[in-house]
Design brief:
This protein is α+β, with helices and mostly antiparallel strands and 178 residues long. 51% of the residues lie in helices and 10% in strands. The chain is built from eight helices and four strands; from the N terminus they run H-H-H-E-E-H-H-H-H-E-H-E.
């Protein structure tokens, strides 16, 4: 095995891990034979590939959630024991940030939680010859703020459960309820 680990090799290892999980359950420790014979350098390259795959998965999931939010605006959809519900979320956005900062004056620290430009931080990491992904994960917690709820049927609001009594059904939810 070469020192570089291909994406395909990493995906094969993921498939092996998935097969073991499906056969033995989530609580069993993995035994991945292909990984046991790898050098430290190969393990690092494998880990890098897994990080990139994970990033691709997160980006794809975010894209899908955005599509679902658009399709399910003020609606709910039942499938496979879950309810997908699109909800509107209100967020205050300043008209003019400078006016807000002028208003706050010395009280700014009390009222403002720093909001950082992640693209700038990634660019600085690259300038310093550091891995931007590692820097981001060491400085920030990734929080998904989505207005798409995915709930088990038994946790869904009663009016949705009653209306969506079989898979494949969709309902519109009034703006005041959603």
């Amino acid at each position: 095995m070469s020192n570089e680990i291909s994406r395909e090799s990493a995906l094969e290892i993921i498939d092996d891990a998935k097969a073991q999980r499906q056969s033995y359950g989530d609580n069993e420790e993995l035994d991945l034979e292909d990984v046991n014979d790898m050098t430290t350098e190969q393990l690092v390259f494998l880990r890098d590939q897994l990080d990139m795959i994970s990033l691709d998965i997160r980006n794809t999931k975010r894209f899908l959630d955005n599509r679902l939010r658009g399709l399910l605006k003020n609606k709910a959809f039942r499938i496979a024991g879950r309810i997908f519900r699109g909800r509107n979320v209100n967020k205050w956005v300043p008209y003019d940030k400078d006016k807000v900062l002028d208003y706050l004056g010395d009280d700014m620290r009390l009222a403002v939680t720093p909001s950082f430009r992640t693209s700038a931080i990634k660019a600085i990491a690259k300038e310093r010859n550091q891995n931007p992904s590692v820097i981001m994960e060491s400085l920030f917690e990734l929080q998904e703020t989505t207005n798409l709820e995915v709930l088990p049927i038994d946790k869904a609001p009663k009016f949705i459960k009653e209306s969506l009594d079989t898979d494949g059904k969709e309902m519109t939810i009034g703006g005041d309820n959603g």
